[in-house]
Structure formats: C-alpha cells, structure tokens
Amino acid sequence: xxxIAVIGAGMGAMAAAARLAVAxxxxxxxxxxxxxxxxxxxxxxxxxxxxxxxxLLRLPAVYRDLFVKTGKETLEQTVRLTQVxxxxxxxxxxxxxVALPNASRAGVLQALDGAFGAGxxxxxxxxxxxxxxxxxxxxxxxxxxxxxxxxxxLGSDPYPAAAPxxxxxxGALFARGGPRVPSLAEVARRELADPRAAALxxxxxxxxxxxxxxxxxSATVLPYLEQxxxxxxxxxxxxxxxxxxxxxxxxxxxxxxFEAEVTGIVEKDGRAAGxxxxxxxxxxxxxxxxxxxxxxxxxxxxxxxxxREGEDVTPGPGPxxxxxxxxxxxxxxxxxxxxxxxxxxxxxxxxxxAELTAVFGAEGDGGPREPCPRPTVTVLRPDDxxxxxxxxxxxxTLSAVVAPHGPVDWTGGEAAARGADWLITAAEAAIPGLRxxxxxxxxxxxxxxxxxxxxxxxxxPGPALAGAEGRYLRPANLTRLPGLYLAxxxxxxGGGLAHAGMSGALVAGLIVEGQDWRGSQ
Length: 521
What we know:
Strand content: 15-25%
C-alpha cells in the first residue's frame, strides 16, 4: 500500500483519489479552501441554489465508469441524471429562433432546415460527419491515453476537409507539410454558408473559452460530442455530482484536510516524497498528485519546471495571454417557471467580431480591453424544485465568456455591475418581462473564480484539441520528477467535467500500472 498525497480537491483530483483508494492505496487530499469540488461550487441564498461552475454534463460515461469502478452504487443510483430536451435553443439578432433536440441527428437537420432554409441541415450534417472522423482519429490519444512523449504528432489538425489520405492517425493524417487545415471560423464560413449557422458552430468553441478565429478545425468535435452523446442535467445542480464524488471518496477511506495549503513538494532521492504545508508540517508520501494549475508548480518545486526531460516546448493553453474567464449572474425570480421554458438558451451577440475582440483581443494586442456590451449569453432555466424555494419562484443563471482579469479590471464593482446589466438585457430575449420578475441578483466575475480556485486571472480551462502545433494540448500527467503526477482541467486531457474526470483515471492508471501504461481499453 502506497501513501498518496493529493494537492487540491477538484473533480480530477477526487477522481484520481477514489480510484487510487480502491486500488489499495492510502490517499490524503490537501485542499487550501474550506470545501471540495474546485470550480464546481454552489451559491445558496433564500432557498435558491445556483451552480458556480458548469451547469450541464456531457460525456456522462466518464463518471459512470468512475462510479462503477469505485463502488457498488452506479452513477444513476447516486445522483438524478436526466437528458435535457431540447438540448439548446438559439436566438439570433435577426429574430431567428431555433431549438435543437437532444442527441438526434435527424431532428437537428430538420430544425436547421426550418430555421435557416432548405439545405442548411444537410450542410451541418456533412460537417458533423467530418467532425466524427476527427473524433475517431484522436479520441484515444486525446482522452483515453496519457499524453505521449511524442505529443508533437498531435500538432497537425485531424479535420479531414483538407487532410491528406489516411494511413492511421500516426501516419499521413498528422504528417507535417500536408495541406493547410483552416481555422474553425474559416470552416464555418466555407462549409455552412449561412452566417447564423456559422455563428452556431462558433458558439460551441466560445462556450469552451476558444477563439474560433484561431482555434483549429478539430474544434468541430465539440458540437459533434454534444449532438452524439447528449446533454445531461444533474438533479440539484452540478454541485450534487461533486458532493457524490466526495462521498464516494469518503466511503473508500480517502482522507481530506481542508484549509491545508501546500507550500512545497518534498523531493528525496530524486523523486517526489511528500508535501509541505503552510504551517510547516511535512506529510510524507510515495507519490504526489497535483490537481492544480501546473503554472503554480515551480513555486512548489523550488523554482524548477515540472515538465518532462527533453520537452523543449511544453504543451500550452493556446495562443494569447491565457484562456478567458466567465461572468455569471444568478437571478432569483418571482413567478413560477413556465411549462414551455427551455432549459438552455443561447442568445447570440449581434456583432461576433466585436465580441471576440473584447474577449480575446485583436492580433498583437496585449493591452487592456473593455468588456463587450452585447455578448453571447447562455441562459439556464432548470426545471428542478431542489434549486428554488417553491413553485412560485424560479432560479435562472446567466453567463458569458469574458476576458480574464488583467486585460479587464474585474476587481471593482463597476465592471461587474455593467456586465450584469448587459447580460440581463440580452436574456430578456429569452425571458420576456425578465427585469420585472427579479427579486435580487448576484454577480460572479473572473476575480471571484480566481479567489475560489487559485487560478490567476480566473481563467477557465478548455478541452485539449489536436492541431495548431500543439498549442491546445495540456501538460502531460507524468512530470520530470518521478512520483509527481498532474490531474485536473489544467493538465491532459484538458478542461470540462468529463476531461477532468478522465485526467483522474489516467493518473490512477499510471500510478497503479506504472508509467508504461498506455491508457484505458
């Protein structure tokens, strides 16, 4: 039985902890905050309950596997999991209104034809088919396997529209010097024709904090995954999933130490040998799992970089100053939720280019920016009695992707107040008479996210993608220091609940099976 020290109690870290405990190891989690879940938090007031992190789950198979492998109760026996249908409603500035069914290719085709005109559905379907090829080519190396030492082979884009003939994913598909594969925005313009369909595609990238103007064409896998595997809601909110995972860790005898800040990683005989806490305590361990942003690790390693030997260039979070953050507004509304209300509505910005410049900046622009006054806003209206005081009230969450703290100063209340007003104005297209129903609202900025998670700027990580010479990959789960492993959304395979859960599975596999382990089967 090995002693495992885990830094952080986020979803990826807890996923690793539960799996390692089942394998017979003694696992202790050290969390600087007062609770578990990392970015999957909760805000409660006056009988209302809101998720402070993601509100929906995709690829639930990741957590089904986790709960099957760590106990007798399945995921569905632990939390209430339901498909959201329709999956999403899109509202455009010209008045176009289209609702897309959950996990129905035929239904999506029909809905797009009805909203955008004959042929729009078929063009979308053709694009999704090509996205499926990209997914099939990269699913294992990007989700189910530890990042290989030759990760640069993932630098070429697998999207097949301009790819050479295939000889397997390690062959011509990723060969350097092949035809140039366009960005996601270029794919949208070239293959979808209708600007509303292009905006729909780009909104999938934006929702994950990706700039469609520079994101690789492989980002088409994002709508493919949603359309193929569906969108799911956890009863009580996504925090209920974090609570269930925490309870599963407890049943597997994982120990949690809260308000226990790790200030150093102990090295002995050339390997990680424990952690040092802020109070001077040293906790010895045979292995250390860091479930935190890897950019924080050099400070814990005496200034040394954690990357593996021989990696002259480390996989990074993509071009620019860093991933954006999110501005979120929690609305406590008087009046019940209408029966025909849609769970998720995306209200599109009238000027996409202005929005992208405000969030990501113009090319070569590293200076301060102003928030976009008319952003793309996601409106979440769950039909869930557990998140509202009674049926005469409704809990609604508004969110928009925004620049992280730094390019925009989110420390003062002025930016937050203006941003909240902009989000509420946009949401009135989805909820007529919204302002008259507001009892109170609460605003969360990237600064609040930074305070909760410790991530500089309050950025939110996106999933790893192939292409762009590896700029959308994340640091490997193995590090240069034997016994030190990386888990969570800032490491391979990237951000999002499913990807964070997979990082925990990969780390557990590497520790239990050894560093030559090649991934799940």
